[in-house]
Specification:
The complex is a heterodimer. Chain A is an all-alpha fold. Chain A has one domain: Hydantoin permease. In chain B, 69% of the residues lie in helices and 5% in strands. Chain B has one domain. Classes of the chains: A mainly alpha, B mainly alpha. At the A-B interface, helix 4, helix 6, helix 10, helix 11 and helix 13 of A face helix 1, strand 2, helix 2, helix 3 and helix 4 of B.
Chain lengths: 498, 177
């Protein structure tokens, strides 16, 4: 079996991709209008929503960047993971019920629709839509590039595809992604998410058991090796220090309720009461999959320090080197399929919300109504958006990474800082005003842009994302308190009372 | 009392902003956010933990304690005002105290390790880190339990569901020609 390692891995990934294409074809028959395309007609059951929610949370970063970060900075990177229980809880306490109620009451199909209804403001809709489009471009470009790089790495190991280029890998992986997103919209996305989530959970669990067997003394021997090498890396604040760690706790924890691709999923369940089951199931799935993130990172750091494995060329190689050294080919195949699943489940969610922002929200904010024949244009824009993002990815790889890096700054932290106060607090406090929302969004975007463009390095590992998030919270509540309390529509008043 | 919750949340975030500024202005320490491993490329080390916390340790401890308080206050904000009962306050207060205990054990365990240079282990990790991994993860589990098991009591009661159905029915009537 070992002689066919690469072929088995390529086979596992190919089976997974064929499944995605077939799901797209099946979902096409169920997609009859733009509501089906963007929010699955609010018809999904609790298991589907749970798996879709957690698999969209854990992008390719969780399978590649996450283990690499643990390898590089030790326990500091754990803070992004251990906050998940608080993050999911806050997301459900603050957002899940009311976003679902408003979506049904006002027939909303996107997050900007929700905030426009809440604040009765097209300016807030426009700003949230623009934030989403900017963030989506950065996220999608990095996800597509990651997908292509991994595909090239595994295919070039086979005799048949030894010379395959990055461009061909971008085309193949993007084509599969585009196909099922265009044909089946969000219905295809969430049903592929179900399988993607299941693969990620299985991969996480199997990897944990494999990791525990690498050293005779299990995980404890690995952590002892790391601790003997450096007194801080295996202690609670890791190599990056206390403020970097606490900053991640803040931004990743509270910020989960401000991620548009996640909160949009909370609009899709059939019954509001299903939320009580969706929350624990999502968290369980996330923890299972995140075991991979922590265990690979710890074992690879210990293995390199101990001389079991040579030093990695790049920290992001941690997962692939672990798989080639310590797992059998079948498990490697499952994990690589899991990796593609993680990347695609996040990418399809971003494609969906980006398309909604472009064809539905920005025209509505500017002209007062969305474009005609939304379903047709949704499919066209999905293709165009993916092509533009893939072009960004290739340009970034071959020419200049600055543009994607800048767009990448509109990642998790910017979404958290600009959307969390407006959505999560705004849906639960009648005193929140449109002026407060606009101030918070603009401040969050400006701070993140300035920190990124100026390359500012703050003392003690304080991140720009943390500064922008705290600032936007202060401004949102402060400005809302000093501006006139808005007159809410009767139905919105009723929803905020429930 | 319940309507004052937003003022408490505002006070917490303002305090956190103040602490962040104080840390920003604190005396800088070399390599406070890590430095390159002396031998292995691509790997970072933390170095002298005591020096890194010398000027900001207490401030950072307060920052995280406020963040834990903010999490339970925001959870309370997510519950309709008329359902923020004493019972809910007791559950959320208990959650906060448990999270605070995990945070204190983690922080003081780290301090103790820096002083003694030795540590015990719990389920694979040094004790202070085990509090971080298991304590932080489990610290918010009471919130999940309150949400899931208390769903029909605090979050979306049968009465709430009926109100929402009435709201939808009224809207449907208005939409009819």
């Amino acid at each position: 079996m070992e002689a066919y390692r690469q072929e088995i891995i390529v086979g596992a990934v190919a089976v997974y991709m064929i499944f995605c294409v077939l799901t797209g074809l099946w979902a096409m028959k169920r997609t009859k209008n733009s509501s089906d395309f963007f929010i699955a007609g609010r018809s999904l059951g609790p298991i589907v929503v749970s798996l879709a929610l957690f698999s969209s949370t854990l992008s390719g970063f969780g399978f590649v960047g996450g283990p690499g970060l643990v390898y590089s900075i030790g326990v500091s990177a754990f803070w992004m993971v251990v906050i998940s229980s608080s993050g999911y809880a806050l997301g459900f306490f603050l957002v899940a019920k009311r976003i679902r109620m408003i979506a049904e009451l006002r027939n909303c199909i996107s997050l900007p629709d929700i905030v426009a209804a809440r604040y009765n403001s097209e300016a807030v809709r426009f700003l949230i839509a623009v934030t989403i489009v900017l963030g989506v471009m950065g996220y999608l470009a990095t996800q597509i590039l990651a997908m292509a790089v991994v595909m090239q790495a595994i295919m070039s190991g086979t005799v048949m595809f030894a010379d395959i280029g990055l461009l061909a890998c971008v085309v193949i992986s993007s084509a599969v992604l585009i196909f099922y997103c265009v044909t089946g919209g969000i219905i295809a996305s969430v049903y592929t998410d179900v399988v993607q989530g299941a693969i990620m959970m299985i991969a996480g669990c199997l990897i944990l058991f494999t990791a525990m067997s690498v050293f005779d003394g299990g995980i404890q021997e690995a952590t002892s090796i790391i601790l003997a090498d450096d007194t801080e890396s295996m202690m609670p604040f890791g190599a990056a220090g206390i403020m970097a760690s606490l900053g991640w706790f803040f931004v990743f924890g509270l910020g989960l309720a401000g991620q548009p691709h996640l909160v949009t999923k909370m609009m899709m369940n059939k019954n509001i009461s299903d939320n009580r089951r969706i929350l624990p199931m999502s968290l369980f799935g996330y923890i299972m999959a995140a075991l991979l993130w922590i265990s690979i990172g710890v074992i690879m750091r210990a293995a390199v320090i101990d001389g079991v494995v040579p030093a990695l060329t790049l920290p992001d190689d941690a997962a692939s080197v672990f798989l080639s050294f310590f797992t059998n080919p079948l498990l490697a195949g499952i994990v690589f399929a899991g990796l593609f699943a993680a990347i695609m489940s996040t990418s399809d969610a971003f494609l969906n919300i980006g398309t909604a922002a472009i064809i539905h929200d920005i025209p509505k904010a500017i002209r007062g109504h969305s474009i005609k024949n939304e379903l047709f244009w949704a499919r066209i824009v999905t293709v165009l958006l993916a092509i533009v993002a893939a072009s960004f990815a290739l340009y970034s790889h071959y020419k200049d990474a600055t543009l994607v890096a800048i767009l990448g700054a509109f990642g998790w932290a910017t979404f958290a800082a600009s959307i969390f106060p407006v959505l999560a607090i705004g849906l639960n406090w009648k005193g929140a005003t449109a002026m407060g929302a606009i101030t918070a969004i603009v401040a969050a975007l400006l701070i993140n842009f300035v920190v990124q463009l100026a390359g500012l390095v703050l003392p003690y590992g304080i991140s720009g994302g943390l500064v922008s998030f705290v600032t936007s919270l202060v401004l949102f509540i402060g400005v809302s308190l000093i501006t006139q309390r808005p007159e809410l529509a009767a139905d919105m008043e009723a929803v905020l009372d429930i | 009392m319940a309507s004052k919750l937003i003022y408490l949340i505002f006070a917490i975030v303002v305090l956190m902003a103040g602490i962040l500024i104080a840390i920003w202005l604190a005396e800088p320490v070399a390599n406070s956010a890590g430095m390159a491993h002396p031998i292995i490329p691509g790997m970072q080390v933390g170095g002298d933990g005591g020096a890194r916390l010398a000027h900001i340790g207490t401030l950072a401890f307060l920052f995280q304690s406020l963040l834990l308080l903010l999490i339970v206050c925001l959870s309370a904000l997510g519950v309709a005002e008329h359902r923020r009962t004493t019972e809910l306050a007791a559950y959320l207060g208990g959650t906060f105290l448990f999270s605070l205990l995990a945070w204190w054990q983690m922080y003081s365990g780290h301090q103790a390790y820096m002083e003694s240079g030795s540590t015990g282990y719990f389920m694979g990790f040094p004790v202070a880190t085990a509090w971080q991994v298991y304590g932080t993860w489990l610290g918010a589990i009471p919130l999940i339990v309150i949400y899931s098991l208390g769903f029909r009591k605090f979050i979306f009661t049968l009465e709430d569901e009926a109100k929402f159905d009435q709201l939808m029915a009224r809207q449907a009537e208005q939409m009819e020609p």
